[in-house]
Amino acid sequence: MRSPATCLRDLRELPGGQRLTLAGGKAVVTPLWSPWTFADRSRQIDDADEAAHRLRDAALECVAARASEYKQVVLMLSGGLDSSIVAACLARQGLPFHCLTLVTEDAIGDERTYARLVSESLDVGLTEAYRDVSRIDIARSGARRLPRPTVRAFVQESNRLAIETARAAGADAIFNGGGGDNVFCSLQSAGPAADRLLSAGPGMAFLRTAREISQLASASLWAVISDAAKRAWFGKPAMRHVQDLSFLSPRATSMAGASTLHPWLILPPDALPGKAMHIRLIAFAQSYVEGHDPQDPLPTVSPLLAQPLVETCLGVPSWGWFEGGRNRAVARRAFTGDLPADIIGRRSKGTPDSFVAQIFEAHRSAIRRMLAEGELAAHDMLDLPAVLRALDDPRPVHGDAFRRILQFADVEAWARGWTRSGR
Hints:
Helix content is about 45%, strand content about 10%. Helix 7 packs across helix 9, helix 7 packs across helix 11 and helix 16 runs antiparallel to helix 18.
């Protein structure tokens, strides 16, 4: 989650939803939009069918509006709920598009069965492409023209394959389902149960929500009830702001200090904890959608993060997103007639984790040289002995250390792009 400060000295960013006024030699930043306006209790949609109807209308209109700027688009289709909803919106509006699904060698990154279900049901073309670890250049940052290292190395293959597919299909934009989990409130927390407790009291409605969350989160019903009560009545914070300080040097840890709170996370007095968690997810999504390079060969569009759809989803009570032990329930209900039942009811979720692990293994020696001799080490930002021990571990990739070290490699590649040696 980004603050206005960038990673370049004295350069700040004006976030979406804010206005900068220059007058009398002063710069004043004023908020123009806040999610809390649309999350107000008086604006919540209590009827599930009405919420689904409004969500479907907003999604159809937003996807069509974004797609109308282009002659044709390539949709990154995993076969998950979010990208499938974008596909359904494009198809129902008669907009020209072609789908691309990316595959890894590990089964968890192979979602072709689901992507084929969607493409066949909507009668739209589908390209299936394998990510190739040998095409990753660990020393090249996809954010080299940006003021922050916001692009991960594994995205190189996604971008390459998307651009190739777009050129073959004659498309001039790349669409995805990015941010769907955030906008459709994909939480595994007792926060929504706490909202129900505060809004309706300790009755059957509260117990029903607690049971739905316990099924989704694989937690006991008592654990959910207890945590919801702590959040609602006993002052447990709605959110914890945790920094990852692993593998940083003492100097870097001391410099990190307290993170700047995103303005949307300054809670109004009557804020419900589950709704606050939903807004936190949307703040994360804002950082994602504003992190693309405007100089990329083709624009990347995440239409589920369009403002009218976000505002509609903020009007759904946090507990309304859970039904039958599933999350994103309102979105599932909204598109039940548009997508195959196996997609609407899907609980599993593919990840590129196996491909990320492949990148680490394939480039382990290059990453070691980069970090041992690089800008981060030269400025005493890393706990270098600990980083090198993890890199020199002869065992197969395990745990989470490899993901953290790949983050450092991404930052190192970005930093070198701003030094004389990296130009």
